[in-house]
Specification:
With 649 residues, the chain is an alpha/beta fold. It folds into three domains: 260 residues, Aconitase, domain 3 (2-Layer Sandwich); 151 residues, Aconitase, domain 3, CATH 3.30.499.10; 176 residues, Aconitase, domain 4. It has 25 helices and 27 strands. It has a seven-stranded mixed β-sheet. The chain has a six-stranded mixed β-sheet with strand order 7-6-3-4-5-20, with helices on both faces. The chain has a five-stranded parallel β-sheet with strand order 17-16-15-18-19. A hairpin with a 7-residue loop joins β13 and β14. α2 crosses α5 and α11 packs across α13. The protein is globular and about 80 Å long. The mean pLDDT is 95. The structure holds iron/sulfur cluster. Iron/sulfur cluster (SF4) binds next to α10. Iron/sulfur cluster binds next to α10.
Length: 649
């Protein structure tokens, strides 16, 4: 039987397991990328593993999330990242050079290679035929040290694109249509492989808009086959030599097939506050808009901004709103500036910002209260823009520019009818991507050869091997659907402590109970109780690392979110499932002890453990863990285990 493209790349990189959906496989990683708010911990963990040099073909460190550098803490972080990249052999992209996914696509993405990144939108270069996956920082550190990456073998789903996009419809509308149909949970445990004549008609930048937002579907990754368009893009970037033709076999068998006819696609928009609340733009037309932003890793490319710039040329944005363009990379910004488009946009009333994530995570350009903000970004979760009661819509650059000109939401086709002289801009690639590379410091030109740790750079906390006795006071009882953002908030006043676990841990679960961290410190150790889906949201490993630092030994929950559960294993916290009756009966302040010898039980494959509560009643808690996860727990986490293995222990 033939193979899908995903299976072909995985087969080429397989070091453990078989390609059976749902089974754990180990794969070799060719490239790794880090962004700034996760990268500091990756390098501190890499240092703790006593490794001398990155072992992957390529490692790249970007500074993109926190580039406004409010105080010395951000600059300390960025200097540390530069020194770590220099010391261990990674490329370093300076603050302001752009968002990791954009800069990586331009400079390093390569068809057929595997990429692991400490950011959830790492799958972006799937648009060039690269198999790219987002993961927690410790997984990146281990992969960079030459270790395999373990993941559940995904189902491969064929998304067949028929026809061709009509005028005013865009790649963003294709992924919004996917979200409308499949929802934010539709991609869990899947890779979406895009094929068909519609896929062939799209340029690489259009393809990467789709693969980028596969993350919003919950997908493990998304990928396109490679073709002349891929080759052409790479040649324009001056990297034609990395091109290789990659196709699924004719007789490849997919787990499922989704067909989208591009001819029928009209401009779409995701309403507040979920990326899958998608409707035709015309359904929400007429709503007054106070802010419009074009940028981010989804639609921040030259090819995304140019259509908007063409629409702005010789016109003016509505006087009552703020219109911001933040290029995804300096390369995009520089080409637009050289071609005169930046001046045209400025003349139209556009505020051109630096190349950064910034506003996408509520850092800068926070919308006014009770107002509508239209953004070309990928996420509009409540509060992400920096204000709790926000109204953020997600759309294409064409829809965003039309709203900026009109001052209200409008389908660009209707604006074209109104204005009479507004032509559909289409998508155009520059003849050559010739931006300067002054902000990219290649590993061979490294400035530093030792780590520079300012006062904001902390230590990696380590856990002892798992003991026989696990338990303690239930320091907090929580409801269903606690997110990683509840556990460790991502606001800018807290984000700056991501490289300082001692300081960051003071904010642990502060959104649930402000006194939690202090109570945990006073108690010295303890456990947590939660309802369903504990730890949903991002891959943020700090949400496991900080509770571990505060002495949390186990979490008893009705169910766990997949990535967070992996992070609990990685940091030596025992994740135990309890039934609804036990959850209802447990109370905050209860003393919960596991009766069995936990270390021996975990090692021997024991699944059911008896818990004794206040010495009064017993219940059962279940450990669902693979053999590898049990080894991690036994060692006290993935870092101590990897160290032991490296030392031959
Ligand atoms: Fe994440 Fe937004 Fe930055 Fe993209 S632009 S990497 S979604 S923070």
């Amino acid at each position: 039987m033939g193979q899908t493209l995903t299976e072909k790349i995985l087969s080429d990189h397989l070091v453990e397991g078989e390609l059976t959906p749902g089974e754990e496989i180990g794969i070799e990683i060719d490239q790794v990328l880090m962004q700034d708010t996760t990268g500091t911990m990756v390098w501190l963990q890499f240092e703790a593993l006593d490794l001398d040099e990155a072992q992957t073909e390529l490692a790249a460190q970007y500074c993109d999330h926190q580039t406004y550098q409010f105080d010395f803490k951000n600059t300390d972080d960025h200097r540390f990242l530069r020194s770590a990249a220099g010391t261990y052999g990674a490329h370093f992209s300076r603050p302001g050079n752009g968002i990791c996914h954009n800069v990586h696509k331009e400079n390093f993405a390569a068809p057929g290679k595997t990429l692991l990144g400490s950011d959830s939108h790492t799958p972006t270069p799937g648009g060039l035929g690269q198999l790219a996956i987002g993961a927690g920082g410790l997984d990146i550190a281990v992969a960079m040290g030459g270790g395999a990456y373990y993941v559940e073998m995904p189902e491969v789903v064929n998304v067949r694109l028929e026809g061709e996009l009509p005028e005013w419809s865009s790649a963003k509308d294709i992924i919004l249509e996917m979200l409308r149909r499949e929802t934010v949970k539709g991609g869990v445990g899947k890779v979406f492989e895009y094929t068909g004549p519609g896929a062939e008609s799209l340029s690489v930048p259009e393809r990467t808009t789709i693969t980028n937002m596969g993350t919003e579907l919950g997908a493990t990754s998304s990928i396109f086959e490679t073709d002349e368009k891929t080759k052409d893009y790479l040649e324009r970037q001056g990297r034609g030599e990395v091109y290789t033709e990659l196709k699924a076999d004719e007789d490849a068998e997919y787990a499922d097939e989704i067909v989208i006819d591009l001819d029928d696609l009209e401009p779409l928009i995701a309403c507040p506050s979920m990326p899958d609340k998608v409707v035709p733009v015309r359904e929400v037309a007429g709503n007054k808009v106070e802010q419009v932003l074009i940028g981010s890793c989804t639609n921040g490319g030259y090819e995304d901004i140019l259509p908007a710039a063409k629409m702005f040329k010789g016109r003016e944005v509505a006087k009552h709103l703020e219109m911001i363009v933040a290029p995804g990379s300096k390369q995009a910004g520089e080409i637009l500036a050289r071609q005169g488009w930046t001046a045209e946009m400025m003349a139209a009333g556009v505020n051109v910002s630096e190349a950064t994530c910034g506003p996408c995570i509520g850092i800068g350009h926070v919308p006014a209260s009770d107002s509508i903000s239209l953004r070309t970004f990928n996420r509009n979760f409540e509060g992400r823009s920096g204000i709790e009661d926000d109204n953020v819509y997600l759309c294409s650059p064409e829809v965003a520019a039309a709203a900026a000109l009109k001052g209200e939401i409008i389908d660009p086709r209707d604006l074209a009818d109104e204005l009479g002289d507004l032509e559909a801009p289409g998508v155009e690639l520059p003849e050559k991507y010739d931006g300067a590379k002054t902000d990219l410091i290649y590993a061979e030109d490294a400035i530093d050869d030792e780590l520079i740790k300012g006062p904001n750079i902390g230590e990696v906390p380590l856990q002892d091997p798992l003991g026989a006795e696990v338990g303690g006071e239930a320091l907090l009882k929580m409801e269903d659907n606690i997110t990683t953002d509840h556990i460790i908030p991502a606001t800018s006043d807290i984000l700056k402590f991501r490289s300082n676990i001692e300081r960051l841990s003071d904010f642990t679960l502060s959104r649930v109970d402000e006194t939690f961290a202090q109570r945990a410190k006073d108690a010295g150790n303890g456990v947590l109780v939660a309802g369903e889906n504990y730890g949903q949201g991002s891959s943020r490993e700090h949400a496991a690392m900080c509770p571990m630092y505060l002495g949390i030994e186990a979490v008893f929950a009705q169910s766990f979110a997949r990535i967070h559960k992996a992070n609990l294993f990685n940091f030596g916290i025992v994740p135990l499932a309890i039934d609804e009756e036990t959850y209802e009966k447990l109370e905050q302040g209860d003393d919960i002890e596991i009766v069995d010898d936990v270390a021996a039980g975990v090692e021997s494959g024991q699944q059911e453990f008896t818990i004794r509560v206040n010495d009064e009643w017993d219940a059962t808690a279940t450990l669902n863990a693979s053999e590898r996860e049990r080894r991690i727990l036994t060692a006290g986490g993935k870092l101590p285990l990897t160290k032991q293995q490296a030392e031959g222990g």
